[in-house]
């Protein structure tokens, strides 16, 4: 059974003339341990989609199921990393992580808890800053704390809503690497919301475009089967990577322009920036380096 399923999900906001039909007929099935990226235009409904998985929003139609049961609210089985860090400014790095750990593991001994917190802070390379306040940290460091906090809760599913989009390319590359490393070590299931096709290709097993709304729905999936750990330099040189990237972008641009003809809503295209400099390697190893198309 898939760990997560969205079945015929539709979601609107408001009523009467101000009603916005954001998502329509969304179907998604995610297997345990998979890394899925949902890529789409700004304003197409990506956050609404992830909020339903997180239990912050509920579908008007259809159902969102975790282990076959409807999601009724947020829970420790799902860890979320947002774009805007969401750290408590009056707590140190250690205490920001501890707050989450206290909530999820109330029975853990003081010593175990301390080791647990330090392990995750170490995992994101922030041991040297463990007693610093958020205001003393750079954007990338703050986002690392968010990653450590989400992972220290040991969720089954890691939900990431454009977690790296505010960061510079180098920090972004390093954090992409760290997230994939931890995902592969801890065998988590991960859902990444991004507007960056390259990020999806480097990190995920599958990319699913969200067609822009109104009534946005999921498009055909693109299987990403590059060998892991993924070497950015090697991938950048691979003609299959270029083909795959072009196919996804072309698809997004095509559905974007079709939708614009039937809607006056404005969309911002996903990132079309050049690929990052080759420095990092991504995730666990896979047998084949063939790219599959569906
Ligand atoms: N609580 C709400 N009430 C009314 N409208 C909403 C609400 N939440 C989202 N919307 C609308 O739903 C649409 C999709 O928003 P959403 O934030 O899900 O898009 P997104 O793809 O995540 O955008 P971005 O990439 O810019 O973050 C937008 O038109 C937004 O104004």
TrEMBL record:
One of its GO terms (molecular function) is ATP binding. It comes from the Bacteria. It is a peripheral membrane protein. Keywords: ATP-binding, Cell membrane, Membrane, Nucleotide-binding, Transport. Residues 4-237 form the ABC transporter domain. The keyword Membrane applies. It is found in: Cell membrane. Its main location: membrane. This is ABC transporter ATP-binding protein. The keyword Amino-acid biosynthesis does not apply. InterPro entries: AAA+_ATPase, ABC_transporter-like_ATP-bd, ABC_transporter-like_CS, ABC_transporter_ATP-bind, NO3_transporter_ATP-bd-like, P-loop_NTPase.
């Amino acid at each position: 059974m898939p760990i997560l399923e969205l079945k015929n999900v539709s979601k609107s906001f408001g009523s009467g003339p101000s009603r916005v039909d954001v998502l329509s007929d969304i179907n998604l099935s995610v297997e345990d341990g998979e890394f899925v990226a949902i890529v789409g235009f700004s304003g197409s409904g990506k956050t609404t989609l992830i909020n339903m998985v997180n239990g912050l929003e509920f579908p008007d139609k259809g159902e969102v199921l975790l282990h076959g049961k409807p999601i009724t609210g947020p829970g420790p089985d799902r860890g979320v990393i947002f774009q805007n860090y969401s750290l408590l400014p009056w707590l140190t790095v250690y205490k920001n992580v501890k707050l989450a750990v206290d909530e999820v593991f109330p029975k853990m001994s003081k010593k175990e808890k301390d080791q647990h917190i330090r392990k995750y802070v170490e995992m994101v390379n922030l041991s040297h800053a463990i007693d610093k306040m958020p205001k003393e940290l750079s954007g990338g460091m703050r986002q690392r704390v968010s990653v450590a906090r989400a992972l220290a809760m040991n969720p089954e599913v890691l939900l990431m809503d454009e977690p790296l989009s505010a960061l510079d390319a180098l920090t972004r590359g390093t954090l992409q690497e760290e997230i994939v490393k931890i995902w592969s070590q801890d065998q988590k299931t991960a859902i990444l919301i991004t507007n960056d096709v390259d990020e999806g290709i480097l990190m995920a097993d599958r990319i699913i475009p969200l067609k822009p709304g109104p009534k946005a729905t999921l498009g055909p999936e693109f299987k990403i089967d590059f060998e892991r750990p993924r070497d950015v330099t090697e991938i950048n040189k691979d003609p299959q990577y270029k083909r795959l990237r072009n196919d996804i972008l072309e698809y997004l641009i095509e559905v974007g322009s079709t939708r614009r003809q039937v809607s006056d809503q404005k969309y911002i295209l996903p990132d079309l920036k050049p690929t990052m400099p080759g420095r990092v390697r991504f995730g666990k190893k896979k047998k084949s380096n063939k790219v599959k198309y569906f």
